[in-house]
Design a protein that fits this description.
The complex is a heterodimer of chains A (495) and B (459). With 495 residues, chain A is an alpha/beta fold. Chain A is 35% helix and 10% strand. Chain B is built from 13 helices and 15 strands. The chains are: A alpha/beta (495), B alpha/beta (459).
């Protein structure tokens, strides 16, 4: 390696097989207390329904389990280790106090059907978070039931459908910009809508003229991400909202990028009718290797009657409770009340910030993205020169001349001690490098990142093979994804 | 703000490097008429100690220290402490979806182990890396069956969790999926005659739950025969995963939609939980959700990747099997660690304790009230019919810091004063005896037909 990697050093890393390969009969990591009721004859109770064999479940001791999972954990990159600049994923710091308070006994052990009388603490958490999110988005009402962003999108389009139906007809189509997340069209299909693509203009924004031409009484809503997936604020947002509203359509905002707006501007103020939030992005709940998330949907007043049941209410005696009598509701989207544990964490984050902290967080996220943009300009092609908010999208146009694509650069970045940016998205940029530093990065960490990215750009010119065969410093080299999909091996089997 | 790693001087330096005069320059693209020129009306910034105090107070207001007889899709089992030790490691907690496989082998290998253990437990050939929860897993499993069969109608057992049925109705409403409810017989199992009538040549699948909402173990083999004879698929929902330790899994099912909360996931007022879909290998390409698969690297070394992504929304967009993106990965890790701890022997012993507590409780209750549906085997839930309303009984019991069974009238008006009671290994004999004593206050003494198949306790 020509360049010195200041961010990372190789170090000894433990090997570890599959847990099944460590199992042997008689080892155990469990101990049950003695029964305080009579033993039962399982054969008599269950008859032919009794299970005799649990197959190949492992038998291992506690220390082996600790080592097994600890060793596995060291093979992961994580926010706790360094910058994780996945665009659109918002990999920000996950505060530890969130984890502590969500584990308090009364919250962690609360049964969802326990009487409301002894659930006032949980209900107050739901109420307080709801009020904060309504204020932050500038909307009028909210449901916290959806379990993730895509689930929120589904809930949102069900609301759109119910609203349009109440006006006479559910309509047929949803407009979705070509820069949108894949969940948007997939969701529209689940709710029985046809998807109509909306082409972006030369600045990567909604083409207002095209929108006006495409909008008609068959269109139920526009799903718009703002700032969009290029990290660009849709400056013509009021015109967009006007075009939709003039023909009875609704403006749905995908709130995946809400972290660029909190405390600075509110979607409810610029014409959005409904939107989802990702508590696991903007509100710091941990991604946990892919979930759990939480995808609240905030709406304007006219959509409130359609919200999923139950809805939180204040009862006559001043206590909180759930209202199940919602005749116009779209129905339930999930059992119980949503990912409550994530509500606790998101509220703890909001309280730790307060109004000033939330605004400063947004400002720092935008400041960081622009610093990265400035630092990489010239070394990488910037396909859209429109101002960036919380993320910046480059392309691999310069490097592609040497046969090096965005995924190769991403893999090489691993050797420099960073998690890659988002590759090949949004689809409107060929060979995209989508970089979102978030507010959690210091100047020092970003300088190391910029340096690493610039070194890689030089390597592409001088030694492209070095980049094409990266990563060089990981436990495993590039894995054969084609073989994995062609002959799927999706579980371990005893040999 | 203590989470932000920049000094005022750093911010100035960044602005200078960018060439901006002030932070406002970077927000110039937002039309000025929409800018928020005031503070958000959210609570003021709190110190960590204040946050801890605030939530501790909420925790105290929230049934802290109550014993519970509630089940109904959310079960109170012991959570071994190493689950939280391990999932709290930042490398698991603060990692993203493992798209970059070379630096995500920890998450990927543990997901592969999770999929393997779910297959072993359910008797299925493939399992996905998780769904949001049991209710959405059931709805997605039904939609999967619709795609697989090319048929559209669905027969749904009324003994499926009522909230799962509501979720399914929501998911299916705009997909032209007519649904036929199928009642339960006197022994609480699916009414086979009604089921036979409900299945037509248009039926894509039949959805049942086992153990069902009332705790009764369904005769899955017989149901499967009936379903398969008509060319439909059988989807079985499992809400109480611990049952798999002692109850034969529904191997005859085509798709299993599971809630794995019982395996080490806190009750947490209803979430986050862990749904899973498991099925036969031949159906895998219509299965929603992420999958980890084994492969090799350029040097032939074993490794794991996310695979069969062409089913998913980020590749297929509106033609994807589902819109699901974020799943419940960290919760699946809790489940995985739980299954590893109890393993082949422990899970059976754990399930046996659940069975024993429930048998004892049902027997005690039957001395003073009517325990319904005793004819078919059950796992850890049972239905108690009283002459007094269960709400009134529960409010007496609550005074003893015990939460009684779930009144069923709201979901099943025909069951009148019935309530669904649940015992797990966490339920003490003292709590059972106390609850039974308080039920007896209104119900009088021994009743004819009391269950006698459990030996009398002499202690």
């Amino acid at each position: 390696m020509k360049h010195i990697t200041r961010k990372a050093t190789r170090h000894v890393n433990q090997n570890e097989g599959l847990i099944f390969e460590k199992s042997s009969p008689g080892k155990a990591a469990w101990k049950l207390p003695p029964l305080d009721v009579p033993e039962v004859d399982t054969a008599q109770l269950l008859g032919s329904f009794e299970r005799k064999n649990l197959g190949n479940l492992p038998e291992v001791s506690e220390i082996e389990i600790i080592r097994h999972f600890t060793r596995l954990s060291t093979w992961n990159y994580a926010i706790d280790l360094g910058m994780y600049p996945l665009g659109s994923c918002t990999m920000k710091y996950n505060p530890r106090v969130n984890e502590v308070v969500s584990r308090f006994d009364g919250l962690a052990n609360a049964h969802p059907y326990q009487p409301e009388k002894i659930s006032q603490g949980a209900l107050r958490i739901i109420r307080t978070l709801s009020e904060c999110l309504i204020e932050i988005t500038g909307m009028d009402a909210i449901t916290l039931q959806p379990a993730a962003g895509a689930h929120g999108e589904m809930t949102g389009l069900l609301l759109v459908r119910a609203y349009q139906q109440s006006k006479g007809h559910p309509r047929k189509r949803i407009l979705i910009p070509d820069s949108a997340h894949g969940t948007n069209p997939a969701t529209a299909a689940m709710v029985g809508y046809a998807v109509e693509n909306l082409k972006s203009n030369a600045q990567g924004m909604v083409d207002v003229g095209a929108l006006a031409a495409q909008m008609n009484e068959d269109v139920a809503a526009l799903m718009l991400t703002n700032p969009n997936t290029l990290g660009v604020f849709e400056q013509d947002i009021h015109k967009i909202a006007d075009i939709m509203h003039a023909k009875g359509g609704l403006l749905y905002m995908d709130g995946a990028n809400m972290n660029a707006l909190v405390g600075k501007v509110r979607p409810g103020d610029f014409g959005v009718d409904l939107m989802h939030l990702n508590l696991h992005k903007t509100f710091s709940t941990p991604h946990g290797g892919g979930g759990p998330g939480s995808g609240p949907v905030a709406v304007k007043k006219m959509l409130e009657p359609f919200l999923p049941a139950p809805v939180l209410m204040t009862k006559a005696d001043g206590t909180l409770g759930f209202d199940y009598d919602r005749p116009q509701s779209v129905g339930r989207v999930r059992a119980f009340y949503g990912n409550f544990g994530m509500f606790v964490r998101a509220l703890a984050y909001t309280l730790a910030n307060g109004p000033e902290g939330l605004r400063q967080t947004t400002e720092d996220a935008v400041l960081n993205a622009n610093y990265i943009r400035k630092g990489l300009e010239g070394a990488y092609d910037l396909p859209y020169s429109t101002p960036s908010m919380h993320e910046v999208v480059f392309s691999d146009k310069i490097q592609a001349k040497k046969g090096v694509r965005t995924m190769d650069i991403a893999k090489r970045l691993i050797d420099y001690g960073f998690h890659p940016y988002t590759t090949a998205f949004p689809l409107i940029v060929s060979g995209a490098l989508m970089i979102e530093p978030t507010e959690s990065e210091s100047k020092e960490e970003m300088d190391l990142f910029i340096e690493a990215m610039r070194f890689i750009a030089e390597e592409v010119e001088e030694d492209p093979q070095m980049v094409l065969s990266a990563p060089h410093s990981t436990r495993v080299s590039r894995l054969d994804e084609v073989a994995a999909a062609r002959k799927p091996v999706l579980r371990w089997k005893p040999s | 703000m203590r989470y932000l790693p920049k000094s005022p001087a750093d911010r100035e330096a960044l602005l200078r490097a960018i060439g901006a005069r002030s932070i406002d320059d970077l927000f110039a693209s937002i039309p000025p008429e929409y800018k928020l020129n005031r503070n958000l009306k959210v609570p003021r910034q709190m110190a960590e100690s204040e946050i801890v105090d605030w939530f501790r107070e909420r925790s105290r207001e929230n049934g802290d220290g109550y014993a519970t007889f509630l089940g109904a899709g959310a079960y109170h089992h012991y959570r071994p402490v190493i689950i939280d030790s391990l999932i709290s490691r930042g490398e698991f907690l603060t990692a993203y979806t493992p798209y970059q496989a070379e630096i995500s082998q920890g998450t990927l290998q543990s997901t592969f182990e999770f999929q393997t253990m779910i297959c072993e437990l359910t008797g299925m050939e493939v399992a996905n890396a998780s769904m949001y929860d049991g209710s959405t897993a059931a709805a997605e499993a039904v939609m999967m069956a619709v795609r697989l069969t090319g048929r559209r109608s669905v027969a749904v057992a009324r003994s499926l969790h009522p909230e799962y049925r509501e979720v399914l109705a929501t998911y299916g409403r705009h997909q032209q999926m007519p649904m036929t409810p199928v009642g339960f017989a006197e022994n609480c199992r699916v009414d086979m005659k009604a089921l036979e009538q409900a299945i037509t040549a248009e039926t894509a699948c039949v959805l049942i739950q086992s153990p069902n909402f009332f705790g009764t173990i369904e005769g899955v083999a017989a149901v499967a025969d009936l379903v398969h004879k008509q060319g439909a698929l059988l989807v079985v929902s499992i809400a109480e995963a611990v049952s798999l330790g002692i109850v034969e899994p529904p191997r005859q099912a085509d798709i299993i939609a599971m809630e794995a909360q019982s395996f080490g996931v806190p009750l947490g007022f209803g979430g986050p939980y862990c749904g899973v879909i498991a099925t036969r290998e031949q159906f895998v390409r219509q299965m929603p959700g992420r999958l980890a698969g084994q492969t090799t690297d350029r040097n032939g070394k074993r490794g794991f990747v996310l695979t069969l992504a062409t089913r998913e929304q980020h590749i297929r967009r509106e033609k994807a099997t589902s819109n699901i993106c974020t799943n419940q990965a960290l919760v699946a890790l809790m489940v995985n660690i739980f299954m590893t701890i109890y393993g082949k022997v422990g899970l059976r012993e754990l399930a046996k304790q659940n069975l024993a507590k429930t048998a004892y409780a049902a027997q005690q209750f039957s001395k003073h009230a009517q325990v319904l549906f005793g004819d078919a085997p059950r796992f850890n839930e049972f239905v108690v019919q009283t002459s007094e309303s269960p709400q009134a009984i529960n409010s007496r019991i609550l005074g003893h810091k015990i939460v009684g069974g779930l009144p069923l009238k709201k979901f099943y008006p025909e069951l009148g004063n019935a309530a669904l009671w649940c015992c797990t290994e966490m339920t003490t004999r003292t709590a059972i005896d106390t609850a039974v004593g308080l039920v007896a206050e209104s119900e009088g003494s021994a009743r004819p037909g009391a269950e006698t198949d459990v030996e009398e306790v002499t202690r």
